Amino acid sequence: MMRPTRAAPGGARNQQGRVSRPTHSRAQIPARRNAVRTFAKKPAKQRNIFEGQRPWVEVVDGKPVSGPDLSCVVDGVKFPNPFVIGSGPPGTNYHVMKKAFDEGWGGVIAKTVTLDSSKVINVTPRYARMKSSSNQKEVIGWENIELVSDRPFEKMMQEFKRLKDEYPDRVLIASIMEEYNKDAWEELIGRCEECGVDIFELNFSCPHGMPERRMGAAMGQDCELLEEVCGWVNDAANIPVWAKMTPNITDITSPGKVALDAGLEGLAAINTIQSVMGVNLDTLRPEPCVEGYSTPGGYSSKAVKPIALAKVMSLATMIKEKYDGGKSLSGIGGVETGMDATEFMLLGCDTVQVCTGVMIHGYPLVQNLCAEVQEFMTQHNFESIDDFRGASLPYFTSHTKLVQLQKEAQERKKKKVGLKSDEEWTGDGFTKETESMVSN
Ligand SMILES: Cc1cc2nc3c(=O)[nH]c(=O)nc-3n(C[C@H](O)[C@H](O)[C@H](O)COP(=O)(O)O)c2cc1C
């Protein structure tokens, strides 16, 4: 059902059926192609964290001061760049969200709020890292057993309002989560809208902490429950709504379709993957260890990127086929570089979120993301994100089709590619035979 009030004030749905709200007015900085400043100098006080190692560009009010234009309009909301702080510690309070806007993030998704934060009690330690075996400084995986925001709802609302008053042209997204209770969802939505937030992200995906209250992933895995809750939210909200999906499910497109069929504007994926970081071989206790015990948590950071890309690919394909591309998609999972972000956009994402990457590298990371995506665009002569968003999606097919394509290619080239069958593997030539079938 089309929501008559969602597009107001002054907005309408565009041809794809997305809500088009008035875009924020800001003088456009002309896109100067081939102008990404690699290793540019910055005043000593504001040095980029990767200066000398990675390209970066100065970002003012969310816009890179040089290079191709990164702005985008998603569900009628204008983002100065597609990089968004993912819900979590980097969006816990006014000070950190202000820092994110000051460093240039296109949008911020605040830490998930619920009406009654007194039920949220966190423990410490609540994080555990997986490090590279060759470089102990490099974090490749991150587990957390952190719950949603433990800050009073009223305080969070005051801070949302203050941020929107101070940064009216920047995108503030409220991540919300509640129990199976229509009144609670309606109250949460009404209160957040009063503060001026631009978009809602529904947390249907936190894998730990609240299953006994049928919240988070417990709700996101139950399509019947989801259909009802998304219906309530869709009727109550006057701004665009994204449903954040859990990867802890066999087919992520099933709950995705339920959320979009209920009328929501978009999807976000992925939240963390259920995990146990490891077991301490001296104490025999699992990590992260709290008073000798642990509980399964959520896995994030670099290691989850391939899984996130697969889930995003499934959702983007479903959106293309079932909704003719008329729904939005926000990609999340292991993004630390502009190249990572570009891969998500090539698979159909409108925006790209970063959570753990900011916890490890800090807020100035956005300057590197912008410069690295600009370098990619310059290299390929792309003028806007729309020029390449979803461009790699058509190159997925079935395994049967791969076999057929290879057979045809071999016949054309009369050339052997790899082993013909498992019969040909040998013990002595094993590594060479493996190498002959690797693509990169
Ligand atoms: C410490 C921590 C806390 C998080 N808290 C939330 C949360 O409150 N709400 C939510 O929707 N996602 C939460 N997430 C999940 C992230 O938003 C994100 O979906 C996930 O970590 C994968 O992205 P990343 O690899 O960039 O971190 C949290 C992640 C971490 C690491």
TrEMBL record:
Pathway noted in the entry: Amino-acid biosynthesis; beta-alanine biosynthesis
Keywords from the UniProt entry: Oxidoreductase
Record-linked SUPFAM superfamilies: FMN-linked oxidoreductases
A Gene Ontology molecular function term of the record: uracil binding
Protein name: dihydropyrimidine dehydrogenase (NADP(+))
Organism: Chloropicon roscoffensis
Keyword Oxidoreductase: yes
EC number: 1.3.1.2
Gene Ontology BP, a term: uracil catabolic process
Top class in the EC scheme: oxidoreductase
Cross-referenced NCBIfam families: PRK08318.1
Positions of region (Disordered): 1-30, 411-440
